[in-house]
Amino acid sequence: MGETNQNLAARLGEVMKRAGGRGAVADLERLSGGANMESWAFFSAGNAYVLRRAPSAEVMAGRPLDHAGEASIIRAAHAAGVLAPEVVAELEPGDDLGSGFVMRRLPGTAAPEVALGGGAQLLGDLGASLAAVHRIDPASMTVAPRLDPPPAWRGLPSSLPSTAATARS
Fold it and tell me: What is the pTM of this model?
């Protein structure tokens, strides 16, 4: 999709208007990473956002989870208290932007040397997020692919010592 940032920003502005914003998109910048998907950082009405998209249907073909499903899972995680972005809009075919969604941009970096340098704070944050993930009702995740455990794992819980026996040792 050989489009200019100006064209992308104009169409993205219409998405933001539909989401209840003022629509003007500023400082649109493609983020690094992603072999097939695109991530774009931008500002609208003074707030920071990220567009996650696949510029064509071919990119999404054969994937077990589409962008609507991905957005649904992120919404559930955010609602459960996981440090996850708020999804504010999903792209529609008439937007001519491909498949994807817009989410609020969280502060921080994905640079490992920075992200992993949090020590005890990082461990606490990870523990809190993991606990929040486990509060999500699996029945509400109808879009998530169901994975069956390998046969060797099915009997594993019954083969482990109980916590009562372990506590007495």
Answer: 0.77
